[in-house]
Amino acid sequence: MNKSDLRVTYKALRKSFSENEIEEMSLAIANKLLRLPTLPDGRQVWDKTYFHVFLPITEQKEVDTEYILHVLSGKDKEIIISKSDFKTCCMTHFLLTENTTIKKNQYHIPEPVDGIEVPSHKIQVVFVPLLAFDTKGNRVGYGKGFYDKFLSECKPEAIKIGLSFFEAEETITDVFENDVKLDYVVTPNTIYTFSSNY
What we know:
Elements: H1 3-15, H2 19-33, E1 50-52, H3 66-74, E2 78-85, E3 90-95, E4 102-104, E5 110-112, E6 125-129, E7 132-133, E8 139-140, H4 146-153, E9 159-163, E10 184-186, E11 191-193
């Protein structure tokens, strides 16, 4: 299936979920993350320090990352969140602290008002939102290119972890050269490792 059809399909599927279902599946994803395997090159995700987390757009019924934030806090990790510029399709990243003020923008995305800026190259692990993904680690987002741009600014060894309520599609037919592949995708039931990325 192509990206456009996948967007329509998976947006409709997500809309059918209740708040309780989203909560249960988001918790299951957070628990699965604790069992991430070692990457093919021997890297361990939880050895890293700088973790980027998206804050969910509740109106789009995205994975609730609050449980992941609790895990990261408990492991004493540095948590980074972003602010989106819809004119440039770029993201600016800030350290999440107890003093961070978060407000929703016009697209209902919760964002930090300001704070300590963190450059993309310092981020070691990125939890990536998506609508769908395939068995090769390709993802479909909302089509604005924010994450492809952001992930291309990270160091090549940054670990990219997609979070999804759904299992993999066999193939996304219209993958582009500059699409950045994922290292893992975690669903409520499965951990996908894309060793072909190495």
